[in-house]
Amino acid sequence: KMTQQMRDLQLAQARKPPGPSSPNAAKRLYRNLSGKFRVNYTSFDEGSLVGRGEKEKLRKSYLFQSNAALFEAVELQDLDRVQELLKHYSPEELDLNTPNSEGLLPLDIAIMTNNAPIARALLQAGAKESPHFVSLESRSLHLSTLVREAEQRVNELMAQVVNEAPNADCSEKEKQLKAWEWRFRLYKRMKAGFEHARVPDAPSSVHLSVASSSSLQVTFWEPLSVNSAVVTKYKVEWSCSPTFSPLLGEAMIDKLKELHFTIQGLVSGTAYHVRVSAYNMKGWGPPQASTPPFAIPSNWREYDGRAPRRRGQAEALDHLLGQVKTVHQHCICHEPCKNQPQSRKHSVSKSLKHLFHPGSKFLKTLKRGLYLTAIFYKDDNILVTHEDQIPVVEIDDTYSCLLMQDFLWFTKVSCMWDEILWLRQCVTVSQSSCSCILQTRFKMLLAISQMQGLLGIQDLGQVFFEPIKDKQGNILIVTLKEVKTNQTFESVRWVPICKLQTSRKSVSSPEEPTALDTLLISVQDKLAYHQRSSHALSPGLYLGYLKLCSAVDQIRVLVPERLPNILCHVKIRSNPNISREEWEWLQKMASVEEPVPTEPEADTSQNPLFQELQVAIKELMTLVNIPLQEAKDFRLYSQEVLDFGDQVSFLLLLPPSDDVCTAPGQNNPYTPRSGFLTLPLQIFELGEER
């Protein structure tokens, strides 16, 4: 009776008819669809269709076939086909959560036949259980009805086949009999699976951590038992009482791609207890209390009430820049630019006028001097001039030794590509009153303006961390930018990088390549550096290693090649927050001036952060090729946690104070393995900001 009611409901709601009723029908359907799984229904020749109605009819027919194929794949326990369908169709296209004429969903069939791999694949795609099964009794009754009706149909067909003489109708009845026998066995297997199943065990582990001053993060794992039915959802509960009475809140987790949940809107300083329960078709299992048994929402800043370091800094800098612009609008140094007599204008160097002449072009070859080149790339293509040259403009033909201060100043200018015209107005062009440094920097601004004008774009990208020099006295400052959209440039075109490298004729010897040849040879390395320097870390707490080395004119910092905008590091955990209790423990360690612990102690062995730090320190020392015994003299930076947004934070590991920065000529006995480089400190700071 219940089954008949469900069928009537299906007809009233214009539900789809059932899919193929036998394995052979399913296999035929698979063969028919096998060539279509990898294309969308719009790949049909729509020019042969007449009107939108026929197109929509074809679309619905095609999607119905895919839905029927999914049911049959689940019934036949064909995991590969299920995964293929889920990959090529959306849940909406598959009607993943629309019951068939028997009132069943694909997930119902998977869990009642105890096919855990298919059930998990369906759950991760967003599959639900049938809403008709409101209780254990209703599910049991429905399965019994399906089995009874299938058995009755088998008996009827068997009697007809036995009593009728062999003919075409008899052959068709035999096919129907085989199909119903197969379905009868399926329903019996589903009924047995339901009857033998039991409620799930408790989750195997529940970990509780402090996510912020107002939230806790709960991470849990599936029950260990393999005898119970597939778990389809979880329940997270929290309370201020260890007895969970009263209950403050609960949340249902039915999206099982990642088994974690963040409890929001909690009160800082209040202890919360958390537990998690698992659910399957037999009901809710026992709850599993968290480890630790409770947690208190907090943040390390609450230890001494300090405000975030960068709060309001961006706004303050914007305000300061606005004030500088306002002052310079009325600065006396602008008057000659605005009200110069005609004779004064003629005193400007002709070479400077030539930069902005319509006939200005990119350079083909380098003479002795300082130059700027801009590398724009998209996939495996690079932007070149119509002469198949990388865009190059001259900065100064009399400048043969680039001072590090000038280069670092140029890198700072790269943060203000849109302000070049204003910066030029702030620098006087008077040769008699300007210092040599100011003249060089003014020429840099002119070269930037020329490059922007010739390319028709303001943003020239990121400056490579060191200029390219050759023995002929050429110095090349390189900027890099990846183009991800169909951006329009002037006077240039795209060519494959490999084609440019093979077609360019070198004008230098292999022993003494020019700066342009060196650039072309190493362009892939520079593009790889640029791409890696824009990668972001995944959310979490990291342990960073700070190691500096000094030269005559700069300080450099050790970074990994795979992520040059970040210090050498390892991940401590996925939760970036340091709680107040954890920070108090770190301060206690620092106050007694003890070295970083590498072996467990009795009073700290139960501290999760201590255990996490132990693992991270060992991993980091191996990474930078430092013997573990040397780490006993290292220290954790205890003044603050370095926060990079809300999702990434760092604890710093420092060598002994005398070894933080290696002086020129000083021997460093522990050289990191390959995969590291040293960047000028200012370049690293700019990359970190980006």
UniProtKB/TrEMBL annotation:
One of the GO biological process terms: establishment of mitotic spindle orientation
Domain Fibronectin type-III stretches: 202-299
TM region positions: none
Region (Disordered): 1-25
One of the record's GO cellular component terms: spindle
Stated name of the protein: ANKF1 protein
Organism (species): Chaetorhynchus papuensis (pygmy drongo)
